[in-house]
Please model this.
Amino acid sequence: MSLFDENAEILAGMGRDGSDLGPSRPVDFSHIFPDLTSANSFATECENDGFKIDVIETDRVENPWDVTVTVQMQPSAKNVTSWEERFDALAQTYGGRADGWGFFRV
Model:
């Protein structure tokens, strides 16, 4: 299953569960990193592009740093997939990777 198909399925399930996917809303993209330096480098680049960023340390042994990037958008499979792929490619340049998305802030 492609990332687009996976995101379309997730969004369809959210819609069936009663989420209003019509209006623009904050969508949070999570990324994990092996160290604070990598996490901060990724976060700084995203923040310089105008995105809201949160950097936190977790209890995980591997990739203990989480960076959440928030994008205001209408949550469609096309929009979510486009941003998810863009952020994942950038995260990989800093040794990290995408780790999902959601509506963490409502």
